[in-house]
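Methods — Computational structure assignment.
A single polypeptide chain was analysed. Its primary sequence is given first, followed by the predicted tertiary structure written as structure tokens.
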Amino acid sequence: MAIEVKVCGLTDADAVATAATGGARYLGFVFYPPSPRSLTPARAGELARGAPPACARVGVFVDPDDALLDEVLDEVPLDYLQLHGAETPERVAAIRARTGRGVIKALKIADPEDLTPVPAYAEVADLLMFDARPPDEPGRLPGGNGLAFDWRLLHGLEVARPWLLSGGLSADNIEDAVRLCRARAVDVSSGVELAPGRKDPQKIRRFLELAGTLEPA
């Protein structure tokens, strides 16, 4: 089985079409205004409705309240909600129960201690995502920073849920990343961009082509 790919931070129809036709399993739409990739629910709804059924549509949120989730879900046909903030396992479970959508919980990794919460989140989320923990700097986004962590931290990790590797991935390093941590699914955003919020169709195609040749060890 080839590596599954989530192309995240999509903002235009060409990028959505390129990702979908190239074999992306997940298409990510961001609802976090500080991000240059953030969309209004109306715009995201247009893009998501144009995606083929084979692609799972993912909404990316950072510590969302119920009002925001309701506003987005009224406009956007999402299959998964990705929680990229400091949501507790209890909050993850509550969102999943309330919305009836699958939930992807992103965990920010820099040190072995960052893996301690994995079992608790694996009990309540449908999928986990391991992303690079950003530096504690003013204005730094919770994700999409083009930063990688030491992928060897995940080698041999036993996880009770499917998971995605994220953080600083591109066509230049996806093979090494998959080899080192045996990822079965990956998430890419900045690695297929011309500039923050502007996807490059050629980079998307290349990344997906490479992912299609890889299999987890």
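Note: The mean pLDDT is 92.
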